[in-house]
Amino acid sequence: MDEKSIKVVCDHWASCESKLHAEYLMIQWTQFAVWWEQLTVPSNLLLNTT
């Protein structure tokens, strides 16, 4: 990390009815994180210009 970075922490607990339900919630949170990253990171940062 440098002075232009921020640290994001998400302390979230969820009650799960079963292991399958817990896995489903984990997938939903992962999809949300990927979606948020795609919105916030400019696509030109992902290109290799060398």
Summarize the main sheet: none
H/E series, N to C?
Answer: H
Share of helix, binned: 40-55%
As a percent range, the share of strand residues is under 5%
What is the β-strand count?
Answer: 0
**Spatial separation of the terminal alpha carbons:** 23 Å
Low-confidence stretches: none
- So how many helices? 1
The 3D shape can be described as elongated
Mean pLDDT: 82
Radius of gyration: 16 Å
Structural class: mainly alpha
Write the layout of secondary structure elements.
Layout: H1 19-40
Your description of this structure?
The protein is an all-alpha fold and 50 residues long. It has one helix spanning 19-40. It is elongated and about 50 Å long. The mean pLDDT is 82.
Key traits:
50 residues, 44% helix, mainly alpha, 1 helix, single chain, elongated
Condensed summary:
With 50 residues, the protein is mainly alpha-helical. The chain has one helix at residues 19-40.
